[in-house]
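README, section 4: Worked example with a bound small molecule

Sections 1 through 3 covered apo chains. Here we extend the same pipeline to holo records, where the ligand is supplied as SMILES alongside the sequence. The molecule in this example is zinc ion. Nothing else about the input changes; the structure line simply encodes the ligand pose together with the chain.
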Amino acid sequence: MKICMDLHTHTVSCGHGYSTLKENIEAADKAGLLFLGLSEHGPALSGGPNAMYFGNYKCIPRQYGTLRLLCGAEADIMDYEGRLDLEERLLEKLDYVIASMHVICVTPGSRRENTRASIKAMQNPYVKILGHPDDSRYPLDYEELVRAAKEEQAALELNNASLHPQSARQGGRENIRTLLDTCAKYGVPVLMGSDSHICYSIGHFEAALEMIREVDFPEELILNDKPERLGKFVNIDL
Ligand SMILES: [Zn+2]
Ligand SMILES: [Zn+2]
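The generated complex, written as structure tokens:
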């Protein structure tokens, strides 16, 4: 598998990241990636960039040698209706959008409420990727979630950082196993994301790949080595 993309990365701009965009670009290039996604947290996450940040992406060049930069967001799901913390006028300017649940932004609900929030977010026409659906604080009905992802033609993220032993998202391993089994059952693709908050982890998916091997997940459902399929999960022409 020749991994060529990492669409889940953060910079110093999010307030709790430690590398600049320049450092991330250099790290992505060094890791042999062809696509790097800048997915900064939405404005509702404390310390995150304000709305203007997302409106100003026009000033960022998108091509660096063989590396293509995509400027997007990890928008925050704000309620069980799947509403996001970025308005449509900003979402439409972004190259792509991941939607995720974070405790600062939405109180964990029942399995039904969390599942509803996630599905509603995926029904947003700008959202094509659901971030870290593996957090035990937000129990999910994986059957329902995966079937909805298939319906909406969205990708579910396999978040490498969720497998870190010190991740705040506890239970990642068990939840990811269920997620992968269910995705395999319904033929729904997964996108590995490093969720890097420092340049050194960009393009590194060791823990995620180990899980993939463990559950014998079909390689044809992994998107990271298939640039020809990326166009379906972003909102721009590649
Ligand atoms: Zn997140
Ligand atoms: Zn993130």
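What to look for in the output: The longest helix spans residues 172-186. The helical segments are 21-30, 51-55, 88-91, 111-122, 142-152, 172-186, 206-214, 227-230.

Section 5 describes how to batch many such records.
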